[in-house]
Amino acid sequence: MKIEWNENLSTGVPKIDAQHKGLITLINALEEAVESRPEDAHHLHDKTYKATIIGLVMKLRDYAFYHFYTEEIFMRSIRYPGYIRHRREHDIFSLRLLKYEINVLEGDYMQAEDLLGFVMSWFSNHVRITDMAYVPHASTSGGEGSAQKETEAG
Ligand SMILES: [Fe+2]
């Protein structure tokens, strides 16, 4: 089942929301690829399937790391007091993601499904709980997210 963007996922920080949408697009692309896995027992010899999975796993990891970097700079810019704990959550996720990626690159394509399940549940929880925790701070600190939030509040 795909992840869908909705307003509950909005941080009100345009750059971060755009990247979250980008992540959703990549997660859904991987979901589609995993779902389209050929039924027959020889699918692991399917070069197109392998190339697609590897490409998407690498893209997703690249984009996730890029996004964390952006978000961490933003949190520092608003002097968010929960920065260290938040960053630690990114780091733990990144380590697990890398482990999955290594397994996939080494030829364990079934790990792509585990990776997908892990990323899907982590992403929604992380955005709704951990990312949302900096939202009130962003709107009062004069950080780059403040203007947008004030406009939304009317
Ligand atoms: Fe985050």
How would you sum up this structure in a few lines?
72% of the residues lie in helices and 0% in strands. The protein is mostly helical and 154 residues long.
Q: Which CATH top level class fits?
A: Mainly Alpha
First-residue to last-residue Cα separation: 36 Å
How many strand elements?
Answer: 0
How would you spell out the order of helices and strands?
HHHHHH
- The name of the CATH superfamily reads Hemerythrin-like
| Average pLDDT metric | 89
Bound molecules: fe (ii) ion
Helix content: over 70%
Into which percentage range does the β-strand content fall? under 5%
* Rg of Cα set: 17 Å
Number of helices: 6
The secondary-structure class comes to mainly alpha
CATH architecture: Up-down Bundle
State the CATH topology. Answer: Four Helix Bundle (Hemerythrin (Met), subunit A)
How many individual domains? 1
Silhouette: elongated
Biggest sheet statistics: none
The low-confidence runs, each spanning 5 or more residues with pLDDT under 50, are 145-154
